[in-house]
Amino acid sequence: STSSVYGVSNKPNVTEDHELVPLTLYNKYKGMCEPLLQKHTTEDFTGVVFRPATVCGYAPRQRLDVSVNILTNYAYNKGYIRVFGGKQSRPNCHIDDMCDLYKKLIHDDITKFNGEIFNAGTENLKIIEVAEKVKSVMENKVNKKNIDIRVEESADIRSYMINSDKIKNLLGFQFKKSVVNAIEDLCDAFENNITVS
Asked: What is the pLDDT of residues 60-83, one digit of tens each?
């Protein structure tokens, strides 16, 4: 699924029992699919629902249309950061952590969690805070100076902050990487001209 099923919430720690407030067809249908899939879980078919945060960082099949990645791409390749809105809060999760989580699910016995829903993410940040982290990495580690943050209006009002204590406590999963790690990974890929598909 996706953590964007929460849509808009001013609660600082949205847990898995929070109401779903779909704002787009994408998160509406993700939310509607969860109970449909849960109906098929049995003793012979174990399944859990994950609501991942916005995944960020370098990957061979790269997405550059999600917040951390798009802001880093703009800063590195255009010399400025374009922020739409900025006050919206979003949870984030490094791609390496998501891969580790999927590997854990494949290898661990999760039968006692059959049908459960789990948030999966760390670092709830406002979009403007992500932009500031990108600017800091660019100026202090990549040596690209005078990165300008340009704030524009946005019609995208999605804003939510998830709590992932359940996945840590029940599955024993620990997130290891940060948004700054994701920004640095992307910069390394750009620096080394690693192409993405």
From this structure: 888 888 999 999 999 999 999 999
